[in-house]
């Protein structure tokens, strides 16, 4: 792991404009190693833009985004990747490469032997060790999602950023993803993940940030961030998050 | 590795065949004489006429095969080929201008003009490739360049006062490696070696592009530079090929398809085998052009299109099942 010091991610008063419209406004939050921060919010609330700002690929209209103390926008591609690895929501793959080759793309600077070893270890974690030689385009959507998650885990970056990694997956795979991201955090990495499933987010994240129309309206532990007032104003839901033995459960109906 | 050895053997075999077989039939004694004394008459036929021509075909085929593999990797599109970015068209335009201006007899004028034409388009595309991430943008500009080059060449036909010059341009555009000597082969290497180096350097970027532009950009690789290198490499290779042999289609399109299955689709590992496959294809096509008895020797570009189109359809038919969005 690289000798990255300081807060993994530090956003201060971040504003992002797209076509003259503010899609993210005055967002301040930070993430440290060892924790999973979930970002939730309705469609178009600015979740993906927040990730892009954090990675330094979305130009900021105001504020500052820092990765391990370095201004994200000014990082070279290699240095940025040494700090943060990115799992996009899009799971399109151009060619039918074997799964291990895709996973090995998470460590492009490692020697071929080491990249393969990291890839196989990551495929093992996501339960795809037996499919290492299979072409990713011959796989089901769920299997391909696991392989792409393996690519993220094969990276040695101390910050993992995942955009809706649970989208379109069965409940087992969704929980596996959250488990693995949690493990990565316990191993000393920082994790930022956007999610739509509030129950999953509450169960799998240490803290949640709620975005509403580009603004950060709540930030804290899941019960605090998803308080009934927030559920109502930001998601249009009546009800609350309830603690249960296997993890929090969201009991809500659409607000009348 | 085994694939490369196999392909190298195939190329050696096709080159040997291209040197041994030709319009003039030689006796066993004459073959022996040619080998023992390269300066003899049979030796001249083999080593000064057939060999440099066969090598020219191999070099052009390799350049086109490699350029095709680079383009398909860069654009993540199995239908891309060296012509898709318009480099062939502007390169041909450069040559056409020189021929129409009556400068065809000036030594190296056509070759230099074709290379300048390719580099002009290549330069524009390199800037665009570094600036725009999406392959669609690059293809759109390529289509525009291609159309512009084609239109300007057509304009030369249109305005050409002498039908002889127009005929010369057409004949050149149809592609040929007839009468190429060792000097041509050596001159080809200059831009081609740079092109090969750029293509090889861009290989890991091409592999990363499998995941799409945005993910590749965040992978840690200097993607803008690697994309520019890929475009510059493909443009140099295409320009070198056009300046040596005119416009030769299908080799750049087909060669990567013939090899991709053996390297599990890996865009980086497809490069070297595609170069070999392109070389073998073009040596064979040139041999066919020489041996098919016609009043006028068949043009190489015509042969590759005639052989390449059905072959491509066959490859596409077989590959259709494995292509997915």
Provide a descriptive summary of the structure in words.
The complex is a heterodimer of chains A (256) and B (325). By secondary structure, chain A is α/β, with parallel strands linked by helices. Chain A has 9 helices and 12 strands. The termini of chain A are far apart. Chain B has a single domain, classed as ABC transporter involved in vitamin B12 uptake, BtuC (Orthogonal Bundle). Chain B is globular, with a radius of gyration of 20 Å. At the A-B interface, helix 2 and strand 6 of A face helix 8 and helix 9 of B.
Subunit organisation of the chains: heterodimer
- The number of distinct helices of chain B, counting runs of at least 4 residues, comes to 13
Q: Measured on Cα atoms, how large is the radius of gyration of chain A? A: 18 Å
Low-confidence segments of chain B, ≥5 residues, pLDDT <50?
Answer: none
- Which pair of chains has the greatest number of interface residues, and how are they split between the two chains? A-B, 29 and 24 residues
- Per DSSP, what share of the residues of chain B sits in E-state strands of 2 or more residues? under 5%
Can you write the helix and strand succession of chain B as a string?
A: HHHHHHHHHHHHH
Q: In percent, how helical is the residue content of chain B? A: over 70%
Structural class designation of chain B? mainly alpha
CATH homologous superfamily placement of chain B: ABC transporter involved in vitamin B12 uptake, BtuC
Which strand order does the major sheet of chain A show? 6-7-8-3-9-10
Sheet of most strands of chain A = 6 strands, mixed
Describe what is shown at a glance.
The complex is a heterodimer of chains A (256) and B (325). Chain A is α/β, with parallel strands linked by helices and 256 residues long. In chain A, 33% of the residues lie in helices and 29% in strands.
What topology emerges from the helices and strands here?
The complex is a heterodimer of chains A (256) and B (325).
Chain A: E1 9-18, E2 21-31, E3 36-41, H1 47-55, E4 62-67, E5 70-71, H2 77-83, E6 84-87, H3 99-104, H4 112-125, H5 141-154, E7 159-163, H6 171-186, E8 190-194, H7 198-204, E9 207-212, E10 215-220, H8 222-225, H9 228-235, E11 237-242, E12 249-254
Parallel strand pairs in A: 3-8, 3-9, 6-7, 7-8
Antiparallel strand pairs in A: 1-2, 1-4, 4-5, 9-10, 11-12
Helix pairs in contact in A: 4-5
Chain B: H1 2-20, H2 28-36, H3 41-75, H4 87-100, H5 109-131, H6 135-159, H7 163-173, H8 182-208, H9 213-217, H10 223-245, H11 251-260, H12 271-291, H13 300-319
